[in-house]
């Protein structure tokens, strides 16, 4: 299992901590942001693949912002994949 931390940009959350096993997300802990929504998102992501999460979350916007916490999760996972090459 691998762990990594991502500092999201342009959203209310300030930190995203991931535990990944192969291509599966084991755990996500998000600091800041909307607690109930992000806790729910974190639970939904357990045992999802990185690819399906990126496909579902990439491009999601929050209000008038150009990004969102789900979009930043996709950014984090794409960054993680780049470090695994």
From TrEMBL:
It comes from the Bacteria. Its EC number is 1.17.4.1. Keywords: DNA synthesis, Nucleotide-binding. It catalyses: a 2'-deoxyribonucleoside 5'-diphosphate + [thioredoxin]-disulfide + H2O = a ribonucleoside 5'-diphosphate + [thioredoxin]-dithiol. It holds the Pfam family TSCPD. Residues 6-81 form the TSCPD domain. It is an enzyme of class 1 (oxidoreductase). The keyword Magnesium does not apply. Belongs to the ribonucleoside diphosphate reductase class-2 family. NCBIfam families: TIGR03905_4_Cys (TIGR03905). This is ribonucleoside-diphosphate reductase.
